[in-house]
Amino acid sequence: QVQLVESGGGLVQAGGSLRLSCAASGGTFSGYTMGWFRQAPGKEREFVARIWISFAYYADSVKGRFTISRDNAKNTVYLQMNSLKPEDTAVYYCAARPATYYGGNFDGFHSWGQGTQVTVSS
Question: Which residues does the chain have with pLDDT short of 70?
Answer without folding.
Answer: none
